[in-house]
Amino acid sequence: MRDHYNPFIGQSSPENADYRLPKNVKPTHYDLHLEPDLENGSFGGSVVIHFDVLQDTKFILLNSDEIKILTTVLVQSSGKSIKIERVHYHELQQTIMIPLPESIPAGSKIRIRQTFKGRLNSSKKMSGFNRSRYVGRDGKPKWFGSTQGQPTGIRQIFPCADEPGLKATFSSTLIVDQGLTALSNMDIASEEEISSDKKKIVFNKTPPMSTYLVAFVVGELNYIESNDYRVPVRIYATPDRDIKQGAFCLDAGARAMVSHEETFGSPYPLPKLDMVAVPGHSGAMENWGCVIYGEQYLVSDESDASAKDNLSKAYVVTHELAHQWFGNIVTASWWDSIWLNESFADWATYNAVTHIWPEWEPWSEFVAGHPNGGLNAYQAALALDSNRGSHPIEVPVNTPSEISQIFDSITYAKGCTILRMLSEFLGVEVFIEGVRLHLKRHAFGNATTNDLWDSLGTVSGQDVQKIISIWTQKVGYPVLSIIEDEESKTIEISQHRFLQSGKVPPEADRVLYPVYLKTKTQQGIDQKSQLSSRENTFPVDLKFYKLNAGQTGLYRISYPLSRWKNLGQQLYSSGLLSSIDRVGLISDLRAIATAGQTEIHTSHLFGFLSHFKNERNYFVWRQILVCLQDVYGAWLFEDSSTLAALKRFQADLMSKVLGGLGQDLWSFKPGESYKEQSFKAVLFGNAAGYEIVKLTASYLFDQFMDGDTKAVNPNIRQAVFRIVLSDPKLSDNDDNYNKLLHVFRTTSSLGTRSDVIKALGHATCPTLVQKTLDFANSTEVQSTTDRNAIFSALSAHQNGIDALWKYLTGNWDEIVGERGGIMGGRFVGFCVEGFTREGQLKKVEDFLRRQKGNGVEKFEKFLEQSLDAVRAKVGWVERDRKEVREWLRANGYYEDDS
Questions:
Q1: 349 and 456 both lie in a single domain
Q2: Same domain, 415 and 490
Q3: Residue 233 domain-assigned?
Q4: Where is the site labelled Transition state stabilizer (predicted)?
Q5: Annotated binding-site residue? 85
Q6: Which of 49, 392, 396, 592 lies 20 to 30 Å from 163, alpha-carbon distance?
Q7: Rg of the chain on CA atoms, in Å
Q8: Domain boundary residue among 428, 453, 473?
C-alpha cells in the first residue's frame, strides 16, 4: 500500500526539496513485465530494478505518477527477500519513498521488485501509456497502444529513476493478445503462446539508455522494409493505412541513417530500426530503435501531398533519426541541456538534407521558415527570443511542468541557429570532427553543454566556450543600430537587446554579445570584423553594404531610414543581395517597425515592400506574405475599411507575379521542382483578394465535391478549402462546411483529411465557429496536432478569437485537468494571442490573475510569451494606426469615400 510522503529523520521536507532524486543509489538494470488491456484501458505489470548502493542508505526514492503500487519487495545481495509493507507517495514531486528495514551499506547490490497497475491515457494527453483508435483488419474499430516517455511520461508506466542522467539497461517482456504485433526498442528474443488468446514477447536487452527513451507499441500492424542500410529499417502502420504509401519515408529514413552514420563517424549500435505510424500521435518521438510518428508524417501518399508536406515529412524523419546518435547514444545529463539533443538534431537534419536533396536548398528553408511553426527555423528563434517571456537556451528547470515548457523554439530553433553560427565560424568540417570526438568521449553516457564545447575546442584549437557560451546562457539577442558618417566613410554600430514589445529596461540590457558582422559590400564579404563592445566604428563602402550576409548571425539590423530607401532601390542591382539577404531585410524591417523604437514605421515597411513587385523567388515571397499576415493580424480588430485596404495593398503587390503565371498558378505539371510547386502554392494560398483566384477556388471545390478529387492539386487543396469556407460570398450557409466534414469522415487520404482539418477553422460564421470548436474537442479528432491546427485557424479571425476566449474561460478546470502541460499551454496561447487591443489585454490579464493557484502555473511560460505578443501588437497599432491609414489612402487602397 501507499500513503502520503512522510520524511524521516535526516531528510528535508519534500516541500523544501528539489525534484531531483538523491544519489544514494544508482539503477543499473530493469527487468520489466507489462500487460496492457487495450479494450478496458488499463495495464498491469511488474518491475525488478537492480541498484548499486553508493551511500549508506535507509530508503530509496523513485519517480512514480498516476500508477498504483501493489507490492514492494527488497531483495538483498544475499538473496534474502523482505516485503515492504508501505511506500510513501508524494503527488507533487511525483515520487515514492521506499523505507528499508535496515541501513544498506555503500558498495552493496540490491533489487527492488514491485507490482503495479495503471490506466491507459487518451491520445489527448499523449504521455505515458496511451491508446488511440484505428480500424482493424476485420473492419471494426480497435484500440492501439503506444508509449510517450519524453519528458516525464515513463513514470506513468512503471516506477523508475526517471532522469536522463540515470541510464540503465532494460530487459522487457510484454503480454499481449494473439494477433497483435508488439514492438520495443530492441529486437525480439523469444515469443511464446501462453493461452488461447495471449502470448508473451521477450525483447533482447538494451544498451545503457535513459528511461524517457523506453518504448512499447501494441496493435495490428503491417510493415515494409528497406535493406539500403546496414540493419533492417522498417515502417509499421495499422491495416487501415496503405503501408505502401510509406515508401517515400522509408527511403528517406534509410538514406538519412547512411548520412548520419557517415557524419557522426560512429555506427548505429542497435540491430534494427523501426519507424511506427501511430494513430492519434502528435509529432514524433525518437525512442531508440522504435521511433514513433503521427501517421501524417510516415504513411501519407507522396503523390497525394503537397511538395511542402513531402519536404516536411523528410525533415521530421531525418530529425528523429539524428537523435539515434545525438540524444540516444549521448544524452543530456539533465533537462537544462536538452537543447543539445534537439537543436543538434535540427542542425544534423539540415546538414543531411543538404547532401541528400540539395535542390531543396535546406539552409534557405531554415532562414525563411515561418516564425509560428513549420520547420523550427531561424525566424522562429528571432520571434520567440524577442519576447519578454523568452528564456536562455540553457535554462534551469526542476519540475515536470517547467521541463515540459522548454520544448519550444528557443530549445530547437535558437539552438540550431547558434550551432549553425558556430559551424560557420569554425568551418563545417572542423565542427563535424569535434562532434565525432564528443560522441566518442561520451558514448552510452551523458554529457553537458560544456562537454561539447571542450570537444570542439580540442579539435579547432579555439576557446569555443568563450566564443559561444554567452549565446546559450543568456536570454535574448541584440539589435545593431547604425549611424552613417558620409565624410569619414564609416558606420558606428551599437548593440542593445531587441524586444518586440518596445523599450528595453537597463537591467535587461547588460549583455554584450560577440557579433560577427559579415558585412557585404560591392567588394565582397568581410569575414573578420566583430563587435564585442557596446559600440564601435567600422570603415565601409557607403555606396552599398548589408550586415549579416547570408543571415547566419542571430541579431537584427536597424539601418537609418535613408539606408532602407537605398536598399529598396538596390534589391536587384548586379546580384548584390541574395534571396536569403532579401529575406533577412524584410524580416528585420518588419521587426524594427513593430518595436517602435526608431524613426521607422509601418508605412516605411509598406514602401519597402512595394519594391518587390518584380520578385520571383519562392523564399522571398514566403517572407513577404508572412510579413503581411503579421500586419493584418495586428490590425485585425480595426475598422473594416482599413482591413479591406490592407487586402488591396497585398493584392496589388502580388498582381504582377500572379499575372505572369496566369492559369499556371493552379496548374501543376509533372517534373516541376519542389520550389516551383511551393512557389505557386504559397501565392495561390495568399491570393484570395485576386478575383480570378476566388472564382477558380470555387470552381475547383465544386469539381472536387462532385467526385473529381484529382481536379484539385494537393499543393493548393488546403487553400481551395480555406478560400471557399472563409469567403461569405462563396459560402453563405452550412452546405460547403458539411461537405468538407463528410470528406473528412469518409476519405482514406491522410493528406485530404489534414487539409480539411486546417481549413475548417477558417469558417467565420458564429454557428460554424462553435461547430468547429465542438468538432475539435470530439473523439473524431485524436491528434493534438490536428486540434491545434483547428485552434490556429480560429485564432486568425475575430469570431474565432472571441469563441476561443469564451471556451477557455468557460472550461478552465477541464483544460487544466485534461490538457495540462505543454499541449494545454499551446492551446491557451491560441486563445490569447489573437487579441490586439488594450481592453482585450486587460480582460485577459484580469482573468489569469484570478486563476493563480488554479493551475495557471502549468502554462506560466507560455502565458508570459502570449501576453507579450499581445502587448507588442497593442503598442504597434496604437503608434502606427493613423499613419497606416494615411499611407493606404494616399496610395489609393481605400475605396472612394464618396
A1: yes
A2: no
A3: no
A4: 412
A5: no
A6: 392
A7: 28
A8: 473
Identify whether 633 is part of a domain.
no
A 10 A CB-CB count for 357 gives 17
469: enclosing H helix or E strand = helix 464-473
CB 28, CB 51: distance < 8 Å = yes
Q: Exposed, middle or buried by CB within 10 Å (0-12, 13-18, 19+), for 279?
A: buried
Catalytic residues: 320
H or E element, residue 81: strand 81-83
Q: How crowded is the C-beta side of 82, counted as CA atoms within 13 Å?
A: 15
Instruction: Return the number of other C-beta atoms located less than 10 Å from residue 99's C-beta.
Output: 16
Give helix 798-810 / helix 784-794 axis angle, nearest 10°: 120
Domain edge (last residue) among 202, 218, 234: 218
Q: What is the pLDDT of residues 807-859, one digit of tens each?
A: 999 988 887 765 555 556 778 888 999 999 999 999 999 998 888 878 787 78
d(CA 380, CA 568): 25
CB 175 within 8 A of CB 34: yes
3-class DSSP assignment, residue 98: strand
Residues 565 and 463 in one domain: no
Classify residue 670: in a domain, yes or no: no
d(CA 884, CA 243): 53
Based on the fold, state whether residues 152 and 6 are members of the same structural domain. yes
Q: How many domains does the chain have?
A: 4
**Cell 489534414 appears where?**
754
Residue 323 marked as a ligand binder: yes
319 carries a ligand binding annotation = yes
Query: What is the per-residue pLDDT across 39-91, written as a single tens digit (0 to 9) for each?
Result: 999 999 999 999 999 999 999 999 999 999 999 999 998 889 999 999 999 98
Tell me: do 458 and 543 sit in the same domain. no
State which amino acid sits at residue 289. Answer: G
Grid cell listed for 144: 492501439
- Cα→Cα distances 140→182, 220, 239, 240, 280, Å: 20, 12, 11, 10, 17
C-alpha cell at 223: 510493415
Helices (H) and strands (E) in the chain, counts: 27, 33
What domain range includes position 827? Answer: 766-880
Instruction: Find, among 45, 111, 32, the residue nearest to 73 by Cα.
Output: 111
Query: Considering only CA atoms, which of 879, 884, 885 is closest in space to residue 897?
Result: 885
Q: Which residues pair with 60 in a beta bridge?
A: 98
